[in-house]
Every structure is written in C-alpha cells, then in structure tokens.
Write a structure and sequence with these properties.
By secondary structure, this protein is mainly alpha-helical. It has one domain. About 65% of the residues lie in helices and about 0% in strands. The protein is built from 4 helices and no strands. The longest helix is centred in the first third of the chain and has 14 residues, at about 5-15.
Length: about 80
C-alpha cells in the first residue's frame, strides 16, 4: 500500500471512529466475498417474523399510532 492511500485510509478511519484494519477488512469482504441475492433473501426470510409470537410487543398498528402521535405537533392554544 503506498503512503498516499495509507494516509487517506487513516483520515477516513479517524473520521468514522474506526481502525484502518477495519476499513480494509470491510473493503476486502465487499469486493471478494460479496453476498449474493440468494443469501440476502435467505437472511431476510430467516429474520422475517422473528418477533411475531412475542406478547410484550403488543399490537404493532397501535404501537405505530402511538409513536406517530408523539411526534405530531400540537396546535397552539389561542
């Protein structure tokens, strides 16, 4: 690795709060070990519905309504 590339990686790592080694590992994994469409679909199917039977989650539609209501601004009183 030449000095210019190393300095650029050091700068990027500092900005992202990561190590140069971590950036290199990620780049190598992206280029040489790409995740195929089949693997992505398999992962999504494995994760799908993972919380479906958990009773502590409750009704998701009601939960979303409550969350949205918390973010709506109330009209000022006149």
């Amino acid at each position: 690795m030449d000095e210019d590339l190393h300095q650029r990686l050091k700068s990027l790592a500092r900005k992202q709060g990561r190590t140069v080694s971590d950036l290199v590992r990620e780049a190598v994994a992206r280029v040489y070990v790409p995740v195929g469409v089949d693997e992505r679909l398999e992962t999504m199917r494995a994760v799908e519905g993972i919380w479906r039977d958990h009773k502590e989650v409750g009704d998701t539609h009601e939960h979303v309504r409550r969350m949205r209501a918390d973010t709506h601004r109330t009209k000022p009183c006149r």
